[in-house]
């Protein structure tokens, strides 16, 4: 006669064969090998790690390695919340936020509990960093999908916005370390063909996440209208984007005889921007990074005639027009930046990247160090 552990293990495999249990309850990955016995769902290994972050709600076990008791075997993904329902109402990039919304806040058990991420309109107050003095002040923000804009007001009762950001050029990314608060968000948009940075935060982490998701939902709607017929798989990566790399390097001028100066660099798709301070509103200059088919290359080190950098780990970017020289503080930083540049240069350019380029090299050359 089979022992209790053996019978329980057989029962686990029988549960896996039920319709709906053949995929992860959270991300739809096939053949889950873990389960939350407190929530009653099967999950993949990746999502099981996220469930450990909400241990007060979810207790997970391996289907293959851990022993199971009879009381833990009520596992049914088919009664779980609808993943497709969530995907249609929230365009979310962070699985941990999705899992917390799903199990902690229980947003997807019924429609009235769902946050209005894709309602097309959001209004509220965020702490915004001043462009010149660096002071954070409460500002009213309005997101309007119908108008295709995100705007903010300097005064709570102001009728005219201080700035209007077109959704077509808006990007949002979490920047807690850069901003210095756990709930910091960096919003960028194009203003007079230059990238404008806005840094905001909110004391409530859920509030800033809701703003982030609302911006993503508005961006997704814009892309659906701008590119009709395009599959969601092509549109979703364009909704918002994280920067390829950020950090300090030293740079010199176009003659390569100027003093090297320490600057903060941000690699955003094919645009390499540099700032005097990481929280500057505008970049001091930008350089376009093309592809190897257009004679762009990245080299380790400097030309033999170059001197004057404080940091010794050099990088040379060769473009059709000139060479750009940078210096890194450590060899590890140098390798990381070279890898980032190579990833961009080795990727063929898209038609929209050709159409959207202007003479970044000239801008980079003539703006101040």
UniProtKB/TrEMBL annotation:
Q: Where is the PH domain?
A: 119-220, 242-346
- For this entry, the protein name equals Arf-GAP with dual PH domain-containing protein 1-like
SUPFAM superfamilies, A to Z: ArfGap/RecO-like zinc finger, PH domain-like
Which GO MF terms does the UniProt record name?
Answer: GTPase activator activity; phosphatidylinositol bisphosphate binding; phosphatidylinositol-3,4,5-trisphosphate binding; zinc ion binding
Q: Where does the UniProt annotation locate this protein?
A: Cytoplasm
Gene3D superfamilies in alphabetical order? Arf GTPase activating protein (1.10.220.150), Pleckstrin-homology domain (PH domain)/Phosphotyrosine-binding domain (PTB) (2.30.29.30)
Q: Does the keyword Transmembrane helix apply?
A: no
Q: Name one GO cellular component term.
A: plasma membrane
Checking SMART domains in the record gives:
ArfGap, PH
Q: Does the keyword Cytoplasm apply?
A: yes
Keywords of the record, alphabetical order, are: Cytoplasm, GTPase activation, Metal-binding, Repeat, Zinc, Zinc-finger
Q: Where is the Arf-GAP domain?
A: 9-74
Family annotation (InterPro entries): Arf-GAP_dual-PH_domain (IPR052589), ARFGAP/RecO (IPR037278), ArfGAP_dom (IPR001164), ArfGAP_dom_sf (IPR038508), PH-like_dom_sf (IPR011993), PH1_ADAP (IPR037849), PH2_ADAP (IPR037851), PH_domain (IPR001849)
């Amino acid at each position: 006669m089979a022992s209790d552990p053996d019978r329980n293990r057989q029962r686990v495999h029988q549960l896996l064969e039920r319709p709906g249990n053949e995929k992860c309850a959270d991300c739809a990955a096939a053949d889950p090998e873990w389960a939350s016995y407190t929530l009653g769902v099967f999950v993949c290994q990746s999502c099981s790690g996220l469930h450990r972050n909400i241990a007060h709600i979810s207790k997970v076990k391996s289907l293959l390695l851990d022993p199971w008791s009879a009381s833990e075997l009520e596992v049914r993904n088919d009664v779980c919340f609808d993943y497709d329902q969530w995907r249609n109402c929230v365009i979310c990039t962070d699985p941990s936020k999705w899992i917390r919304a799903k199990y902690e806040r229980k947003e997807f058990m019924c429609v009235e509990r769902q946050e209005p991420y894709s309602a097309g309109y959001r209004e509220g107050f965020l702490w915004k960093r001043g462009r010149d003095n660096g002071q954070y002040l409460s500002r009213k923000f309005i997101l309007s999908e119908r108008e295709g804009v995100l705007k903010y007001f300097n005064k709570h009762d102001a009728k005219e916005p201080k700035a209007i950001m077109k959704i077509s050029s808006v990007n949002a990314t979490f920047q807690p370390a850069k901003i210095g608060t756990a709930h910091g968000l960096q919003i960028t948009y194009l203003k007079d063909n230059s990238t404008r940075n806005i840094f905001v935060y909110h004391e409530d982490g859920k509030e800033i996440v809701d703003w982030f998701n609302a911006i993503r939902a508005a961006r997704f709607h814009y892309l659906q209208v701008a590119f009709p017929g395009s599959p969601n798989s092509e549109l979703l990566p364009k909704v918002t984007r994280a920067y390829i790399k950020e950090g300090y390097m030293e740079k010199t001028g176009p003659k390569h005889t100027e003093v090297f100066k320490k600057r903060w660099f941000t690699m955003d798709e094919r645009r390499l921007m540099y700032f005097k301070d990481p929280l500057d509103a505008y970049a001091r200059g930008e350089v376009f990074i093309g592809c190897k088919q257009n004679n762009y290359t990245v080299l380790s080190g400097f030309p033999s005639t170059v001197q004057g950098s404080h940091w010794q780990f050099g990088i040379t970017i060769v473009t059709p027009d000139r060479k750009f020289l940078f210096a890194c503080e450590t060899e590890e930083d140098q390798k990381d930046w070279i890898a980032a540049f190579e990833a961009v240069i080795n990727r063929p350019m898209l038609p929209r990247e050709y159409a959207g380029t202007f003479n970044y090299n000239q801008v980079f050359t003539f703006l101040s160090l």
